[in-house]
Design brief:
heterodimer, A: 289 residues, six-stranded mixed β-sheet, four-stranded antiparallel β-sheet, 9 helices, globular, B: 298 residues, mainly alpha, 60% helix
C-alpha cells in the first residue's frame, strides 16, 4: 500500500470542476506538481492534507480513509505535515511560539521534548537565530520558512507543500532543496510550484495538471524527453512556436512549432517540455508512474 | 519510519500545554495588562481619595473590576480565539481539534479570574486596615455569605464572564469589530437593565450578566441595598459563564456530542432555576441603610 492513494478523485466548486477523475499514488520521494493557475494543484494538495474532502472517488492517507470517520481523519493527520498556499500568523506570536503551538497540536505534550523538536525544525530551515523574533517582523521569505518549519514538526511521513519556494531567494531555495532531499528518503513529499527549476533540481517525479486532469505523470527525465527535437535557437524572432523569447545571448529560443529557418536544435529544459505539454499540440504520453 | 511525538498515541494534544500557551498570551496582552492595572489602581484611588479614609459604598466597588478587567478581557479573549485561525489550514489539518483549541482559551480565562481574586483581596485588605463605617452595608450589617457572594460575583466572576463571552464572540462572530460591538451591547444592556432598581420590582434586574446590589450613597447619606438573593444570583451568573464556554465549544461540529447537548441543557435549566430563586428569596425588598453623616451631601 502506498503512503497516499487517490482513486478516481473529483472535486467541484459550484459549477467549476477543479479535479476530474484523478488517480495517483505517492510513495517516498519528492513529487512536483506543475500546472497553470486553476489546474487543480492546490485542490489536490488540500485533499491529501485532509483539509477538504473529494466529492467522488477514494482517498487513503497512510492507510486511513479520512472520509470514513473523525477517528480516521485524526490518525491520518498524525502522519501529515502541511504548508498551505496562504498562511497567516497570530499577531503577537514569536517564531518559536508559533511553531511550538503547532507542535502541541501535533501532540508533542512534553515541554522539554517539544522545545528540542521546535529548535530542530527551526535550525533545519535556517531560522534558529530568529526564534525569539515576532513573526510579524519577518520578511516574506522568512515567514514562508516558518510555515515550512511547522510542517516539518514530527518528521511527517507525508509532507504537503503548496508553493513552498514563494518569496525565497536562490540561496534559500537551495537550502530548502537540501532539506527536502533529506526528508524524502523517509517521507512522501508533494510540492506544487511555478518554478520548473525547483522541480528539475529536486523532484524525481513530476505530475502535470491542467483543467483538473493529469496531463503527465512520470519522471522528470521522461517529461523533458517529450520535448526533444522541438526546441531551437534562432537568430531571428519566430511567431510560430508555442513560446519564444530573446535570451541573454541575444538569440531567440523557440519552443514548439515548425523549425525556424536557420535555427539549430538545442537540448530541451523541463520548462520547455512543460510549455509544450500544456499547449497540447504534443499529445501527452500515457501516464506512467 | 517517521519520528513520532513522545506522547502518542491517541493522547491528543496536551490541553495543559495549550492552555499554558494561551494563558501566557492572555497575561502578556497589552489591553489586558491595562485593564488589570486599572482595576487595582482605581480601587486604591477610591480608598485614597476618601477624605477620612473610611471606605464607603463598598458593595458598589464591584463595578471597577467588571468594567476595567471584565470588558477588556472580553476583547482580549475574542482576539486570542480568532488569532490562531489566521493560520487557517495549517492548524485545521493538525490532529488537535477546534474544540480543544477553544477549551485551551477557555482555561486561559483563569488569568482574568485571578485578577478578580486579586481585586477581592485588595478590598479585604483595605477594609481590614481601614474598617468601614458602622452603618455601611458590609459584614456585620448583612449576612457574611451575601457579602462574599456579591464580591465574588461582581469581581472574579465578572472578570471570568467577560473573558468567556469574548471566547464565544471570537468563535461565532466573524465581522471586523465584533468584540467592540459585543462590548457596547453588554454595557448598554446592563445600564438599561438596571432601570427596575428604583421601581416596585428591583428583582427584575437579576437576569443581567452583571448585577448591582448597592446604590452608592445618596445625598442624604443613606445607601440602598437592592432586593434579591446574592448567593443564588452568583450561581446563576456561573451558569451564564458555563453557557458561554459550552456555546463556544459548540462551534466545532465534531464536538457536538450527546454529552455536550445534555450538559448545555442542564446548565440552562439550572440557570433558569437559580434566576427564579434569586428573585424570590433573600432580601424581599430594597433596604435603606441608616444615615452615614460622612456621606451626606456628597
Amino acid at each position: 500500500m502506498s503512503l497516499v492513494d487517490l482513486l478516481g478523485v473529483s472535486k467541484s466548486y459550484g459549477g467549476t470542476r477543479a479535479l476530474d477523475d484523478v488517480t495517483l499514488t505517492f510513495d517516498r520521494g519528492v513529487t512536483g506538481l506543475l500546472g497553470p493557475n486553476g489546474a487543480g494543484k492546490t485542490t489536490l494538495l488540500r485533499i491529501v492534507a485532509t483539509s477538504i474532502a473529494a466529492d467522488r472517488g477514494s482517498t487513503r492517507i497512510l492507510g486511513h480513509d479520512p472520509t470514513a470517520s473523525h477517528g480516521e481523519v485524526v490518525e491520518a493527520r498524525r502522519g501529515l505535515g502541511y504548508l498551505p498556499q496562504e498562511l497567516g500568523f497570530p499577531h503577537d506570536m514569536t517564531v518559536f511560539g508559533f511553531v511550538e503551538y503547532v507542535a502541541v497540536l501535533k501532540e508533542w505534550n512534553q515541554a522539554a521534548a517539544r522545545s528540542r523538536e521546535v529548535h530542530r525544525v527551526l535550525d533545519l530551515v535556517g531560522l534558529g537565530d530568529l526564534a525569539a523574533k515576532r513573526v510579524r517582523k519577518l520578511s516574506g521569505g522568512q515567514r514562508r520558512r516558518v510555515g515550512l518549519a511547522q510542517a516539518l514538526v514530527g518528521n511527517p511521513q507525508v509532507l504537503v507543500l503548496d508553493e513552498p519556494t514563494t518569496g525565497l531567494d536562490p540561496a534559500q531555495r537551495a537550502t530548502l532543496r537540501r532539506t527536502l532531499s533529506t526528508i524524502a528518503s523517509e517521507s512522501a513529499v508533494l510540492l506544487s510550484t511555478h518554478q520548473t527549476e525547483d522541480v528539475a533540481a529536486l523532484c524525481e517525479r513530476v505530475v502535470v495538471l491542467a483543467e483538473g486532469h493529469v496531463r503527465f505523470d512520470g519522471s522528470v527525465v521522461d517529461l523533458v524527453r517529450t520535448a526533444e527535437g522541438r526546441v531551437w535557437l534562432s537568430d531571428e524572432p519566430a511567431e510560430t512556436g508555442v513560446a519564444a523569447w530573446r535570451t541573454g545571448t541575444g538569440r531567440h529560443r523557440v519552443v514548439g512549432g515548425p523549425r525556424p529557418p536557420g535555427a539549430e536544435s538545442v537540448e530541451p529544459s523541463l520548462e520547455d517540455a512543460y510549455l509544450l505539454m500544456l499547449d497540447g499540440r504534443v499529445p501527452a504520453p500515457d501516464a506512467v508512474t | 519510519m517517521s519520528t513520532m511525538s513522545p506522547t502518542t498515541t491517541g493522547a491528543g494534544p496536551g490541553l495543559r500545554a495549550m492552555a499554558g500557551i494561551e494563558a501566557r498570551r492572555f497575561a502578556r496582552h497589552p489591553l489586558f495588562l491595562l485593564g488589570a492595572a486599572a482595576t487595582i489602581v482605581v480601587t486604591g484611588l477610591l480608598q485614597a481619595n476618601d477624605h477620612d479614609h473610611v471606605p464607603a459604598d463598598l458593595l458598589a466597588w464591584t463595578v471597577v473590576p467588571a468594567f476595567f478587567c471584565g470588558l477588556t478581557s472580553l476583547v482580549v479573549a475574542a482576539r486570542l480565539t480568532r488569532s490562531t485561525e489566521t493560520a487557517g489550514e495549517a492548524l485545521l489539518t493538525a490532529p488537535g481539534s477546534e474544540a480543544r483549541r477553544t477549551l485551551a482559551v477557555v482555561l486561559a480565562c483563569s488569568v482574568p479570574l485571578a485578577v478578580g481574586v486579586l481585586w477581592m483581596a485588595e478590598v479585604l485588605v483595605i477594609t481590614a486596615v481601614w474598617p468601614p463605617a458602622s452603618m455601611e452595608w458590609w459584614f456585620g450589617t448583612m449576612s457574611g455569605v451575601q457579602v462574599v457572594a456579591i464580591l465574588v460575583a461582581g469581581g472574579p466572576v465578572a472578570c471570568l464572564g467577560g473573558a468567556l463571552l469574548g471566547v464565544l464572540t471570537g468563535r461565532w462572530l466573524r465581522f471586523p469589530g465584533a468584540p467592540a460591538v459585543v462590548l457596547l451591547v453588554v454595557v448598554v444592556v446592563v445600564m438599561v437593565g438596571h432601570a427596575p432598581t428604583e421601581t416596585a420590582h428591583p428583582e427584575l434586574r437579576l437576569w443581567l450578566p452583571w448585577i448591582s446590589w448597592q446604590s452608592g450613597s445618596d445625598t442624604d447619606g443613606t445607601a440602598t441595598l437592592y432586593k434579591g438573593n446574592a448567593v443564588l444570583a452568583l450561581l446563576y451568573q456561573l451558569c451564564l459563564c458555563a453557557m458561554a464556554a459550552l456555546g463556544a465549544l459548540w462551534h466545532d461540529r465534531e464536538s457536538r456530542t450527546r454529552g455536550l447537548v445534555v450538559g448545555f441543557v442542564g446548565v440552562v435549566v439550572a440557570a433558569v432555576a437559580f434566576l427564579g430563586l434569586s428573585m424570590t428569596t433573600g432580601t424581599q425588598d430594597n433596604r435603606v441603610s441608616p444615615v452615614n453623616p460622612a456621606q451626606a451631601d456628597h
